[in-house]
Specification:
Elements: E1 9-19, H1 43-47, H2 54-82, E2 85-93, E3 96-100, E4 110-118, E5 123-135, E6 142-150, H3 152-175
Antiparallel strand pairs: 1-2, 1-4, 2-3, 3-6, 4-5, 5-6
């Protein structure tokens, strides 16, 4: 049976990188089920049956959004402490990605990635991958990486990110004609 091929999309995404022990190393879990919106209803839906005044419900929704922002900032600071390098991802799919970095990594290096899929609220995905190629580019060394290990939830998050980016690029192309 042939391996399934997945779409890749051009992007400009921030990611954090650190060396991994090996290609089969399980990446650090980066999700927070309390904040990702998949296990709980959005704040507005939870307030509908609470018999609160509209101004109070609006205030609580705004407060929730501000707390998401604060938690996102603190989480990004933590990532910067835990991971040694910040890179810019230029192309991504669930099978691999390309990124530029200030310093070159060698072909064969195995890296753990914390991919910032969304800044506010912070949405992350983690993966481990092997550097397959390095090329010079005006922005710095460009690295092609094949993903060797990714958790199922992170896989789904990257697939959803790629689909959303493709839709956005199609809309932009349609309106620019």
């Amino acid at each position: 049976m042939e391996p399934q091929s997945y779409t890749r999309v051009a992007t400009r995404m921030r990611a954090f990188v650190r060396p991994a022990a090996g290609p089969d190393t399980l990446p650090m879990p980066l999700d927070n089920p309390a904040l990702d919106g998949t296990d709980a209803a959005p704040l507005g839906e939870g307030l509908e049956g609470a018999n609160l005044s509209k101004p109070l419900a609006d205030f609580l929704q705004a407060l929730g959004a501000k707390l998401d922002t604060v938690v996102s900032l603190l989480s990004q600071q933590r990532l910067e402490e835990d991971f040694q390098d910040a890179v810019e991802v230029l192309d991504i799919g669930v099978q691999g990605l390309e990124f530029v970095a200030r310093r070159p990594f060698a072909v064969g290096d195995v890296l753990e990635f914390a991919l910032v899929l969304n800044q506010y609220p912070l949405r992350l995905a983690a993966a481990v991958g092997r550097v397959d190629a390095v090329a010079d580019s005006p922005a710095g060394p460009r690295h092609a990486v094949t993903v060797t290990r990714i958790r199922e939830a992170d896989f789904e998050a990257v697939v959803q990110f790629v689909i959303n980016e493709e839709r956005q690029q199609i809309r932009e192309a349609r309106w620019s004609r």
